[in-house]
C-alpha cells in the first residue's frame, strides 16, 4: 500500500453557483492543506455567525488540485482519504460526483478508480461550507490531512485492523488481532496473512500467520490470538506502545503491508475504586478542548496537537474531552504518546437543533455512519477510555430522547465493547420548556443572561426532582453519567442511585477546589473536566471580565460584544502560556502546595466588574508595572496552606489566612513598589513553600524557538516573541506592535497573542503583543535554515534561526 500526502498543490476559491458570474470574484489562490478557509475572512458585528464564530463569517468554498495518475495504476485500487472536511463535503473527480460526507468531523474515503483517467492529469475538486451551523468556531475547508492511497486490488482494508488485549496478567497478555482483507477483482483469491507484534524496545514479541480466502468483490476478516510474554502496560505514567505489523502475501510476493500502534492496558470501573487503569485508580484531571489551534485557525497538524497535549499535561491535566465533536487522529496519537486519557465525543446535537443549520438536520439518517467513523478511528488508541454520545442534548429529558440515548449507546457497544459510555447531561437544557417549575421568573430571561447570572441557581435546578425524574432513563443507559454544571447532584445521586458512576463532564473553572474535593470524597465520582483547558476561537468573550463604569456600558450576558474573538476561558491561552487559573488548578489538584502569585492589574484597581461563570479574575503573574509607586494594588496568593505572609524586598506586608475570597486563596490589599515580591506559605506554623515575582530590568524584544529543528515536510516551528529582561521577566502593560519577516524555506502559518478582544488577523505579519507576549508559528516548506526577524519601534530586532530537515 502506497500512502501519499496531498498537502500541497491545492487552490481555493469562493464556490459559485452554476449561473453566477466570476466578475469581481477573486481568482483561485494556492494553499497548502490542512487549511482553514474562514480564519482570515473579514470580521464584522453583522456576520451571521455572531458571537458563536467570533464574528467570523461562513461561506462555501471550492478546493481544486491536479493529480498525475500513471497508466500502471489502472491495475491498482486508488483511494482518496480525507481525515476531515468541514462541512457537507462534496468531492468531484474530473467533474464527476464521487462522494458526499455531511459530517464535518468524520474521516471518509473516496473510491476513485471509476472516475480516474489513467496516464493523464486528473482534477480533484472538493466543496466545503460553513454557515450558522455550530455554537463555536468550526473553521471550514479541508482542515485535516488528505492522503492518496494506491494498493493492489486485493489489499488490507484501510483502518481494517483491530487490536484488543483484555486478558492480561503479569505473565502474559493475550492479544487478539482482526484484519480485514478486501478483494476488488472478479476472481476468488487465497492469500496468506502474517502478523508480527513488535515490543516497545523493537524486539519481536509475538508472530503468527494464516491463510485467508476472499471472494470476488468481497472482504474477509482474518483473526489471530497470540500471547505476549511479560507485557509492558500502557498507562498515564508509562505510555508505552506495541506495534502490530501485517503482511499480505501471494506465495513469496508481498501484496500489501500495514502497521497499527496499540497499547496493552486493563480498564475497570466501579463505585468503590472509581476508574482503574492497570489496577490503579486514576482520578480524571480533565480539560475540555475545542478542535481549533489558536493562531492556526481550525486546522489539525500533528505538531500543533502534540504541543497542545504536552502543555496540558505540564499544566496538571491527565485527561481531555474532545468538546463537542470527534477528536482528530493527530490529537489521539499525541494523547497515546503522552499518556493522556481521552473522552471522545460524538456530537453536540441529535434531533433537536441548537443553531439553524446544525448537524441535527439528517441526524436520524446518518448517526450510525457517524458512530462507525468515530469508533473506526479510536478503537486502537489506548488513550481513549470513554465514548461520549453527546453534549447537553436538548431532547434528553423526554421518552424519545431516552430512546435515542439507548440506541446510540448500544451501537457504540456493538462496535467496541472495550470502552465505557458517557454523555454530557445538562438537566436544565434538557428541560428548558419546563424550567418555570423550578426557576420561576428567571426562566423567562434571555438564555445568555440566565446562564451568566445563575451560578448557584443552576446547581439547585440541576438537583431538582424535575431533572432527577426526566433524565433518569437517559442516564441509566450509560456506564458513566456525565454532568455539566451539576455537581449539586454528586452526593444526592450517591443516595438515589447507589450504582451510578459520575464524571463532571463540564464544570466552571473557579470551582475546581470544591469540585476536586468532591472527586476525592466520593469514589464514584471519577473526575472533573473544566471548561476549558486551552482557550479557543469563538463563543467569544464567554470568560471575559468587563469593567462596568464605562459610559454607556450594557451587559450582554455570556455573549462578548464585537470585536471579541476568543472565549477567554482557558487555563492556557492560545499561545500556550499558562494563566493564573492554571496555577490555581495545579494546587487544587494536589500536584503542588504552592504558593503562586497573581496580581490584579493596578490600572483597574477598585473598578466595578462583571464576570460570567466561566471567568477568572483579571490577574497576571507579574510584578512589572508602569504604575506610579504607591499605587494601590490587589495581590492574590494561591496555596494549599493555612496562611500566607507577603514580603516586598524583605519587608513584611502582613499575614493573611487562606480561604477568602475562594478556597486556596489569600488576598492582600497593598501598594505597588518595584522590587521583589515574595509569598511564604505556612501550614501549622511551618513554612511549606515560597515563591517570588520580580520587577523586570532592562527590556528587550526577544524571540526564541521552542525547538531548534523541524521536519522539512511542513513541520511547524513555534517561536514565542516577548518583551522581557535578560532573566525572561515580561512586562504586562507596555504592549506594542511587532512585525515578523522570514527568510529561507518557511512561511508564516500564524501570528497571535492571548488578547481576546481584537481586530487583528492571525495571518500577520504584524500583531500587537498581549501581556508582553506574542507567538509566531512558521511552517517549513523545504530543507534549509529559516530565519525569523521580529521588529518593533524603539527596540533592536530579535532574530532566531530554525533548521528544517
Automatic annotation (TrEMBL):
Residues 164-265 form the Glycoside hydrolase family 2 immunoglobulin-like beta-sandwich domain. Residues 630-688 form the DUF4982 domain. InterPro entries: Beta-gal/glucu_dom_sf, DUF4982, Galactose-bd-like_sf, GH, GH2_Domain-Containing, Glyco_hydro2_dom5, Glyco_hydro_2, Glyco_hydro_2_cat. Residues 701-800 form the Glycoside hydrolase family domain. Pfam families: DUF4982 (PF16355), Glyco_hydro2_C5 (PF18565), Glyco_hydro_2 (PF00703), Glyco_hydro_2_C (PF02836). Residues 275-431 form the Glycoside hydrolase family 2 catalytic domain. Keywords: Glycosidase, Hydrolase. It comes from the Bacteria. Belongs to the glycosyl hydrolase 2 family. This is DUF4982 domain-containing protein.
Amino acid at each position: 500500500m502506497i500512502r501519499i500526502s496531498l498537502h500541497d498543490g491545492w487552490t481555493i476559491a469562493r464556490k459559485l453557483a452554476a449561473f453566477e458570474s466570476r466578475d469581481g470574484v477573486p481568482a483561485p489562490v494556492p494553499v497548502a492543506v490542512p487549511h482553514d478557509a474562514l480564519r482570515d475572512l473579514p470580521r464584522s458585528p453583522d456576520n451571521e455567525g455572531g458571537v458563536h464564530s467570533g464574528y467570523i463569517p461562513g461561506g462555501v468554498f471550492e478546493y481544486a488540485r491536479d493529480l498525475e495518475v500513471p497508466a500502471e495504476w489502472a491495475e491498482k485500487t486508488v483511494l482518496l482519504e480525507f481525515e476531515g472536511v468541514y462541512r457537507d463535503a462534496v468531492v468531484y473527480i474530473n467533474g464527476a460526483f464521487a462522494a458526499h460526507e455531511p459530517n464535518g468531523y468524520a474521516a471518509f474515503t473516496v473510491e476513485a478508480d471509476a472516475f480516474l483517467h489513467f496516464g493523464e492529469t486528473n482534477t480533484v475538486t472538493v466543496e466545503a461550507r460553513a454557515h450558522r451551523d455550530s455554537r463555536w468556531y468550526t473553521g471550514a475547508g479541508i482542515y485535516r490531512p488528505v492522503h492518496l492511497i494506491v494498493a493492489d486490488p486485493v489489499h488490507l482494508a484501510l483502518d481494517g485492523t483491530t487490536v484488543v488485549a483484555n486478558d492480561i496478567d503479569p505473565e502474559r497478555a493475550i492479544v487478539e488481532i482482526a484484519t480485514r482483507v478486501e478483494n476488488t477483482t472478479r476472481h476468488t483469491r487465497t492469500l496468506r496473512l502474517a502478523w508480527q507484534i513488535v515490543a516497545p524496545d523493537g524486539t519481536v514479541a509475538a508472530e503468527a500467520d494464516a491463510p485467508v480466502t476472499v471472494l470476488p468483490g468481497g472482504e474477509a476478516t482474518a483473526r489471530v490470538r497470540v500471547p505476549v510474554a511479560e507485557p509492558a502496560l500502557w498507562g498515564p505514567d508509562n505510555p508505552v506502545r506495541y506495534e502490530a505489523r501485517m503482511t499480505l502475501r501471494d506465495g513469496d510476493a508481498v501484496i500489501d503491508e500495514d502497521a497499527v500502534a496499540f497499547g496493552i492496558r486493563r480498564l475497570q470501573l466501579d463505585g468503590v475504586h472509581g476508574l482503574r487503569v492497570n489496577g490503579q485508580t486514576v482520578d480524571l484531571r480533565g480539560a475540555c478542548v475545542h478542535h481549533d489551534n489558536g493562531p492556526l485557525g481550525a486546522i489539525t497538524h500533528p505538531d500543533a496537537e502534540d504541543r497542545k497535549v504536552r502543555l496540558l499535561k505540564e499544566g496538571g491535566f491527565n485527561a481531555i474531552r474532545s468538546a463537542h465533536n470527534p477528536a482528530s487522529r493527530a490529537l489521539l496519537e499525541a494523547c497515546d504518546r503522552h499518556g493522556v486519557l481521552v473522552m471522545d465525543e460524538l456530537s453536540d446535537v441529535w434531533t433537536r437543533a441548537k443553531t439553524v443549520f446544525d448537524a441535527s438536520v439528517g441526524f436520524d439518517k446518518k448517526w450510525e455512519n457517524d458512530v462507525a467513523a468515530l469508533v473506526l478511528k479510536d478503537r486502537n488508541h489506548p488513550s481513549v477510555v470513554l465514548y461520549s454520545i453527546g453534549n447537553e442534548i436538548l431532547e434528553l429529558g423526554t421518552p424519545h430522547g431516552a430512546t435515542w440515548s439507548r440506541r446510540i449507546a448500544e451501537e457504540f457497544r456493538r462496535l467496541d465493547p472495550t470502552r465505557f459510555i458517557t454523555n454530557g447531561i445538562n438537566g436544565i437544557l434538557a428541560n428548558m420548556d419546563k424550567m418555570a417549575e423550578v426557576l420561576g421568573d428567571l426562566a423567562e430571561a434571555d438564555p445568555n443572561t440566565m446562564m451568566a447570572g445563575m451560578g448557584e441557581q443552576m446547581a439547585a435546578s440541576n438537583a431538582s426532582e424535575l431533572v432527577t425524574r426526566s433524565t433518569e432513563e437517559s442516564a441509566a443507559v450509560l456506564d458513566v453519567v456525565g454532568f455539566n454544571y451539576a455537581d449539586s447532584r454528586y452526593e444526592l445521586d450517591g443516595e438515589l442511585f447507589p450504582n451510578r458512576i459520575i464524571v463532571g463532564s463540564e464544570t466552571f473553572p473557579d470551582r475546581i477546589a470544591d469540585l476536586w474535593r468532591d472527586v476525592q470524597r466520593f469514589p464514584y465520582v471519577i473526575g472533573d473536566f473544566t471548561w476549558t483547558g486551552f482557550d479557543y476561537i469563538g463563543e467569544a468573550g464567554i470568560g471575559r471580565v468587563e469593567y462596568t463604569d464605562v459610559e454607556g456600558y450594557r451587559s450582554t450576558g455570556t455573549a462578548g460584544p464585537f470585536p471579541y474573538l476568543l472565549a477567554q476561558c482557558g487555563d492556557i491561552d492560545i499561545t500556550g502560556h499558562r494563566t493564573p487559573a492554571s496555577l490555581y488548578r495545579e494546587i487544587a489538584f494536589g500536584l503542588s502546595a504552592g504558593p503562586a502569585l497573581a496580581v490584579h492589574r493596578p490600572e483597574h484597581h477598585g473598578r466595578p466588574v462583571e464576570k460570567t461563570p466561566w471567568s477568572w479574575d483579571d490577574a497576571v503573574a507579574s510584578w512589572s508595572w508602569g504604575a506610579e509607586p504607591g499605587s494601590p494594588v490587589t495581590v492574590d496568593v494561591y496555596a494549599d496552606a493555612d496562611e500566607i505572609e507577603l514580603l516586598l524586598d524583605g519587608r513584611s506586608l502582613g499575614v493573611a489566612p487562606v480561604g477568602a475570597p475562594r478556597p486556596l486563596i489569600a488576598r492582600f490589599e497593598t501598594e505597588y513598589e518595584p522590587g521583589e515580591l515574595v509569598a511564604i506559605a505556612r501550614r501549622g506554623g511551618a513554612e511549606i513553600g515560597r515563591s517570588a515575582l520580580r520587577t523586570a530590568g532592562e527590556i528587550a524584544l526577544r524571540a526564541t524557538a521552542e525547538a531548534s529543528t523541524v521536519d522539512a515536510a511542513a513541520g511547524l516551528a513555534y517561536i514565542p516573541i516577548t518583551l522581557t529582561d535578560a532573566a525572561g521577566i515580561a512586562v504586562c502593560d507596555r504592549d506594542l506592535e511587532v512585525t515578523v519577516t522570514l527568510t529561507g524555506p518557511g512561511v508564516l502559518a500564524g501570528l497571535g497573542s492571548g488578547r481576546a478582544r481584537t481586530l487583528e488577523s492571525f495571518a500577520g505579519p504584524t500583531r500587537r503583543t498581549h501581556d508582553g507576549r506574542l507567538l509566531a508559528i512558521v511552517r517549513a516548506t523545504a530543507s534549509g535554515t529559516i530565519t525569523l526577524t521580529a521588529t518593533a519601534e524603539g527596540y533592536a530586532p530579535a532574530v532566531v534561526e530554525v533548521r528544517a530537515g
